[in-house]
Amino acid sequence: xxxxxxxxxxKMKIVYDPRFELEYSDExxxxxxxxxxxxxxxxDLYEFVKPEPASEDDLSLVHTKAHIESIKGSGLYDxxxxxxxxxxxxxxIAYSGEPAFALIRxxxxxxxxxxxxxxxxxxxxxxxxxxxxKEGKVKKVLIVDFDLxxxxxxxxxxxxxxxxxxxxxxRRAKTQQLYTLSKxxxxxxxxDIVAVSAGFDAHVEDCGRWLETEDYKEIGVLIKEFAERECxxxxxxxxxxGYNQKVxxxxxxxxxxxxxx
Length: 261
What we know:
By secondary structure, this protein is α/β, with parallel strands linked by helices. The chain has a single domain (13-259), classed as Arginase, Chain A (3-Layer(aba) Sandwich). The chain is built from nine helices and seven strands; from the N terminus they run βαβαααβαβαβαβαβα. The chain has helices at 34-42, 56-60, 65-74, 77-95, 124-134, 152-157, 174-186, 213-230, 245-259, and strands spanning 13-15, 47-49, 100-102, 141-145, 164-168, 193-198, 235-239. A seven-stranded parallel sheet has the order 2-1-3-7-6-4-5, sandwiched between helices. Helix 4 packs across helix 5 (124-134), helix 7 (174-186) runs parallel beside helix 8 (213-230) and helix 8 (213-230) packs parallel to helix 9. The longest helix is centred in the N-terminal third of the chain and has 19 residues, at 77-95.
């Protein structure tokens, strides 16, 4: 895949590699066509860049040696560390001042310090956050997760980290929940970056049967405005869930439209 030209005014980079299109297992997250429908929705709008695989040292910032070895034994190590590397690449782009979206898989928010489930192996967003922190680039980080499912792995990793806040979008009436997110963000001050676990399985035509496509755009706008106000505009998102290929591409596109500059 070559880097595509970016349409003037669409300041946003998409981190992607064709290897994410491969069926690495029989799980829903690895279903054929899932990555392609998102790529097709975005390919003519934004610049695409390739990631490098995360190193074992990067993974060790979050996971135990035993956890990493267990993934090596599963045969999914290469694709899982490429996904973590995609999140790292997006975080680096965001730190430099441009928003980014990591179009990656496997997802990550159900992977904890020493456990994994729910199609997740390494916690992509946690690895990227901890790498920025280790390098001294950021201290105070907000993670917003709007996947249908609670990111128990992310919460597990940062449970004792006072400088990393984790917020999960709870299932409530849509207008109430978007208001709650807006109110929550309005109370936060002086963060260095915001990272987003972007899951699209809460859509009315996906597992959750809850959010509309336009709600994803509004979520993107709310997080962008927070980043502009409190994080020097530094923000990035990584793909988590979302499985109905008929709507997945347009849902991701809607979120990015709200999230980009």
